[in-house]
């Protein structure tokens, strides 16, 4: 299982991601069981519909794309039954060879952050994925429990840096006393953690593909850059090449609705994902 962490043989997430991209192309596809998508697929907005949606995505995509990204909120909305579906979805996707990135955006301090880390990054945890998204706005230092646990278990993190929502700029582009934007400070702190990692560090960031001229020094990261916004949110493969000029080798573009709208037909879902993957390959080289 290329997507699973093997006990006793910890391979860093950055290395596993590099291998997955080399074998399957540079693309992450979201599993976002939005009520509107469930309806368009002819599914009920309950745990049964949720599972049919998620497992159809796994069947269509987990054997083809490098990374699948379940949006945790849509599973949590169905309570314990939804989280059980998330557990099964993660296991099935990993069994088929995909890496699984849990889009949970967790962030807190002290023992609470440590508990979030155990939930998503600890060996044997029911919800453990290959990587998880984190929010740094209680300070990157507050994420230490997750960063440390991810290192010890061979998993990864993607920390929000510069997101595509317009209101995020108020915080993320704010300039600190040292003259750096908050987003750049996030990049720099994680870059220190990734220093010397070969082929790639395991602490990544999130930068929206729709942010335009961002002014960030992403080369300092030496880690993966998750780039949401491809497709339905308005970014094209050409935009990726422009926004991430010079650091395309770090970028993991992610798309969701633009592929998922082709369901529930398995072949159509797969074909849509592969078409996007090919466009990205041409644009980023």
- In percent, how much strand structure appears in the residues? 5-15%
| Distance between the ends | 27 Å
Q: What CATH architecture do you see?
A: Alpha-Beta Barrel
Number of domains: 1
Structural class: alpha/beta
Strand order of the largest sheet: 1-2-3-4-5-6-7-8
Please tell me the overall pLDDT. 94
- What's the CATH topology label? TIM Barrel
Short summary:
The chain contains twelve helices and eight strands. It is of the alpha/beta class.
For this entry, give a set of tags:
TIM Barrel, eight-stranded parallel β-barrel, EC 4.1.1.23, lyase, RibuloseP-bd_barrel, alpha/beta, pyrimidine biosynthesis, OMPdecase_type-2, 12 helices, 285 residues
Describe the structure.
This protein has 285 residues and is α/β, with parallel strands linked by helices. The protein has a single domain, classed as Aldolase class I (TIM Barrel, Alpha-Beta Barrel). The protein contains twelve helices and eight strands. It has an eight-stranded parallel beta barrel, surrounded by seven helices. Helix 7 links the parallel strand 4 and strand 5. This is Orotidine 5'-phosphate decarboxylase.
